[in-house]
Amino acid sequence: MAMNHARIAAEALRFRLGTLSEPSGNGNPPVDTSEAGEILAACGDPGVDSALRMLGDTWRAAGLEPTTIDRPWTAGDTARLRTVGGVKLLDPLDQLVTGVSRCRNPR
């Protein structure tokens, strides 16, 4: 089964950024999460790859359908992720957030 890693990353970023701040008034996150997801998927950064794997493992552990991880996440999806992943879920999500900068501006 092929997964769209860019869309998975974008959904994870939408979720994480939604926990950090209020949306920009128009219902959208403060960054273009689709563009950021594309950057992350193309990057090849080991931290990003690990974060996506951990997120997928948590998704499955939460009993969510694996084929839906790259579609818009519902409130129920995110609630189950938080319940199963707890505070440990923050690390891979934050790895994706910081990965955007690393991947956009490689050294």
Overview of the structural elements:
By secondary structure, this protein is mainly α. It has one domain. The chain has 5 helices and no strands. It is globular and about 40 Å long. The mean pLDDT is 85.
Q: Distance N terminus to C terminus?
A: 34 Å
Q: Helical stretch count? A: 5
Q: What is the chains' assembly state?
A: single chain
Structural class: mainly alpha
The major pleated sheet works out as:
none
**Secondary-structure element pattern, one letter each:** HHHHH
Calculate the mean pLDDT score and round it: 85
- Helix amount: 55-70%
Strand content: under 5%
The total count of strands amounts to: 0
Globally, the shape reads globular
Domain count: the total is 1
* Low-confidence regions: none
Any idea what the radius of gyration is? 13 Å
Write the layout of secondary structure elements.
Layout (H helix, E strand, L loop, with lengths): L4 H16 L12 H11 L2 H16 L13 H11 L4 H15 L3
Helix pairs in contact: 1-2, 1-5, 2-5, 3-5
Concise overview:
The protein is an all-alpha fold and 107 residues long. The protein has helices at 5-20, 33-43, 46-61, 75-85, 90-104. The mean pLDDT is 85.
Question: Which terms summarize this structure?
Answer:
107 residues; mainly alpha; globular
